[in-house]
Amino acid sequence: MKRVGLLIAAVAALGIVAGAQAADKVKVGFVYVGPIGDHGWTYRHDVGRLAIEKQFGDKVETTYVESVSEGADAERVIRQLASTGHDLIFTTSFGFMNPTVKVAKKFPKVKFEHCSGYKRGPNVSTYLARFYEGRTISGLIAGKMTKSNVIGYIASFPIPEVVRGINAFTLALREVNPKAEVKVVWVNTWYDPGKEGDAAKALIDQGADVILQHTDSPAPAQIAQKRGVWAVGQASDMTKFAPKSHLTAIIDDWNNYYVARTKAVLDGTWKSQDVWQGLNTGMIAMAPYNPAIPKDVVALAMQAEADIKSGKRHPFQGPVRNQAGKVVIPKGKAADDKMLLSMDWYVEGVQGKLPGK
Amino acid sequence: MDTAAAVIVSMMAAATPLLYAALGELVTEKSGVLNLGVEGMMITGAVTAFATATITGSSAIGIVAGATAAMALSLIFAVLTLSLVANQVATGLALTIFGIGLSALIGQGYVGTPLDALPKLDIPGVSDIVFIGPVLFGHDFLIYFSFVMVGAVAWFLYRTRAGLVLRAVGESHDAAHAIGYPVIGIRYLAVAFGGAMAGVGGAYLSVAYTPMWIENMTAGRGWIALALVVFATWRPGRVLLGAYLFGGVTILQLHGQGFGLGVASQILSMLPYLATILVLVLISSDRALIRLNAPADIGRVFRPAS
Prior knowledge:
The structure holds 2 protein chains of 2 kinds. By secondary structure, chain A is α/β, with parallel strands linked by helices.
């Protein structure tokens, strides 16, 4: 696989060289971890890229390299983009963090934007959406919809980002349904429709009647529909893959951010920053609620959405207990960003052990 | 359906695409040709099968179309490596990259299109028996057909004259050529068979396993199939065993996690590959084993001395 990724990257790099002739335009490059056709994570980033083109027309030129594996390939692809006259480069996966920082040091005039990482520099910004706010909404809905009180959660890698999602979901779930529990299955991939589908089947076989996913393909939702249980989509609206089962989805919306950052480069006002936005700025949004969800549950979800936006509700409002039953976030307090960014423990109600703990 | 039966049924479905692709590659390799393009042929088979099944409404026609498309792709490989004597490793890798790109292009309009899964055998009364029903009588026809193919390939390779000739070509193309066998022709057929089987494996993914089309949905299964052939030391029966082992470990580790088993999932995911490396080491240290099973002329270019 590695060698193929390498060859693909080499072929893609040739394409970039060929297209790198025009001057005076701001050139914006994107490095994607999956194919645009995943209809999930990478697809949403590419929608953001197209928004830049639509907004600025002739003033910008965008390029992208898709399916870049997180490793040595990534560094070469990023360097290739930097050395072919790109002014602004978005690297859109956690595993691109070190390569991005490394290349950025060698190209101080190029601006870099890394999604979901924590390392910054004078020319490296980071940005991320507060996806966990969407998990809270999904948790409230799942808690009301489940009959078996077992929720299946397909997780990718045990990083704080994913653990935070599981915890936010579980807290909301048990707020409306204290009997419900969450079974987590780690698939160790962001994208493998077959394996994600297998995980969904395994969870349904073990009694789950709502399937959550923190992986990128629509396969789990589709399996859920086939087996007659509920599902919550990831990254983009997956309704068309499972119109009956798809309760809602947490949609990433990078458009405004990408347009704003490109504008900053055009105006010469770009500065390194760290951005973490949620429902309030529209960086995430909920997909249309399934008409099968009862009206009072939709009202509950929409109220929670409004409360999170206004700051009235925090997804990690104390008291929050960990699996051992110990209070980790005391009553009257909410988790701060530092705690959220390094979260490596499960809350009460999640079954099993966190890998590596 | 109880959990044990559910695990076995999922395991069989997970193993089937690997089994088809590996069986085809086994025959190709037995003729002395190493085609690393399995992944590309599988994904092309997957998208063609899905598109055809969507248009015609028939999964069977879709599967045939998938096999045909993958076979066509394998013939490109055959022309390049056998007639134009290009390097097999490089051409095979190129075939994979080409297949992934081509499938994405063909599949553009089919993302999100619904398709009914391949029907499963359902004998009233029998398929409902506890455990035995779902495990023995609850599958789609491609799973049953995969067993037929294992038998057929084993029978062909070791019980027929044509199979003997094919193996002879793989062992020593010069000797086979000297006796008067059409080395190139036989290898064309073996490559085409390998392509068709990879196509069926891909088709299984897109019309039966997860009935949908999405880019890169084979996600490396073609490479696992290649490893399987080595793991099986080029024996059809062991390919069956290996495919079920590979498929079984994947499914078991997912179920294990759901039950809260304390073993790191990464270790379980790693097992089949460790086993493959172990087999590689074992056969490399035992010369007799290599001579018995691995085709001696695999990957070598054949230029007839006219």
